[in-house]
Amino acid sequence: MVFRICLPLNLVSIRGISRPHVQGYLLLCLQFRIRSFGLWPACRGFACDRIFSSTMTKQFDAIVIGAGIIGTSIAFSLSKQGWQVLVVDPLAGAGQGATSSSVAMVRTQYSTMEGSALAWEGFHCWQDWAGFLELDSDEPIAPFHPAGVLTFKTANNGFLERQLEFSRQLGIPFESWSGSELQSLFPNWDLASFGPPVTSDDPEFGSRSEATLESVFFPKGGYCPDPQLAAHNLQRAAQQHGAHFRFGEAVTDIDVTENHVSAVTLSGGERIDCRIAVNAAGPHGRAINTLVEPARRHRIQTRVVRHEVAHIRCADAATSDQSLIMLYDTDIGGYIRADTGDNVLAGSLGARGEVEMGADPDNFDRNLSPQSVEAVYRLAQRIPSLGIPNTLSGVADLWDVSDDWIPIYDCTDVSGFYVAIGTSGNQFKTAPAVGEMMVALINACEQGADHDQNPIRFQLARTGHEINLGFFSRNREPNPASSLSVLG
């Protein structure tokens, strides 16, 4: 059983207390745990979040807009460095938006060096999730299941030449598997080439080449089966460092005074002063940008894309030795990862004839469309034993994607307004590192650095690699090396 007594104390009356960025009040939380009752709930609902996050001031250093996996990670990193942080989200709790529908696969093969480096850093965070969070409570931690990534060398991924070179430079291990090795692990798979991927109504659907595909296995990967809990973990870690969360309210206006963010207004009419605001609103990110006029003119824009993932039984997706493997198959244009029992989650990597589905983030269809079965049809080419169910189950949700499917992590033309958008579909795995990276960018810019003219360089703490944050600029040219897909 947990009791919390929260008292606002005037800093003037307390000797010897000095904390950077605290403006006016200190929230002193005295927590008493009575463990003899065995009652220490993991409060994930709206009511508990409001209790643990009651806002004692209308002035904060930073307001983070969005409590998905990216927003909560940024809040955690900011609060660890002494920023007084408020996170605002219109939903009832952390990770309840697009994050909750993420397949949460952690892989390292990207079409760019920077993407691969950030994902490799993220992997090191996920494999020691408890150590990354450093929570001082015994509440549940989102699990991480190690699983290697299997992929094929195909024309549409450049036969993985760039990805393998990045892996060599970054020290990411990989193995080249022969056809016989692959067949021994997956005896019921058809390893012929069916590419390039097309929809089932295309005359070339099912066409095959008898040439066996070459495959590459990346052993360092995995997935989180509870992405919403992962976001909640980050919320609790941020709260442990003094962050506040306001759920059930949206940001409806952002005040700019002399070209500097000065306050935000919430849907309930409350105005909250702040030094900076960070747009991490996921599918609502574009709408938030419209509240700050110069942000509408960024060279790289974002859009909302509706995506679908099928949940199907596929016993032959497992290896002969029952080890966990995730498949990214650009030959058929699909991916799978294990779920409970013999079930897998199956989604599309894109195919000729497939139509991108735009959506309104405030009003979209959560039912699977007829197009959702296309990824299953293509998967059945690789795994012929796969049955096509009469009724398909799964999830339909939204991605927030940029013009080149590479995220935007940047400052803006308005001082104090930062963006971490265009992240959906391929940035869950990088989220822990993104929080640290964004805080490095924010600290540098707030101290006077001109990131647009002299881009910040950021050293990844666990792997030691350095990346140029100008790569993620809002005003970059669309990257020609990008896969232009969820692969990043």
Main attributes of the structure:
488 residues, alpha+beta, FAD/NAD(P)-binding domain, D-Amino Acid Oxidase, Chain A, domain 2, 2 domains, nine-stranded mixed sheet, eight-stranded mixed sheet, 10 helices, 28% strand, globular, disordered N terminus
Structural account:
β3, α2 and β4 form a beta-alpha-beta unit. The longest helix is centred in the last third of the chain and has 16 residues. Helix content is 20%, strand content 28%. The N terminus is likely disordered. The chain is globular. With 488 residues, it is α+β, with helices and mostly antiparallel strands. α2 runs parallel beside α7, α3 crosses α5 and α3 crosses α10. The chain folds into two domains: 235 residues, 3-Layer(bba) Sandwich (FAD/NAD(P)-binding domain), CATH 3.50.50.60; 175 residues, 2-Layer Sandwich (D-Amino Acid Oxidase, Chain A, domain 2), CATH 3.30.9.10. The strands form six sheets. Strands 7, 8, 11, 17, 18, 19, 20, 21 and 22 form a nine-stranded mixed β-sheet that branches. Strands 3, 4, 13, 14, 15, 16, 23 and 24 form an eight-stranded mixed β-sheet that branches. A three-stranded antiparallel β-sheet has the order 5-12-6.
Nutshell version of this structure?
The chain has 488 residues and is an alpha+beta fold. The protein has helices spanning 46-52, 69-80, 113-126, 129-133, 161-170, 179-185, 227-240, 285-289, 373-382, 431-446; strands spanning 2-10, 25-33, 59-65, 85-89, 105-106, 145-146, 148-152, 175-177, 192-193, 209-212, 215-218, 222-223, 244-247, 251-257, 260-266, 271-279, 302-313, 325-329, 334-338, 343-348, 357-358, 393-402, 408-410, 417-421, 457-459, 466-468. The radius of gyration is 23 Å and the shape is globular.
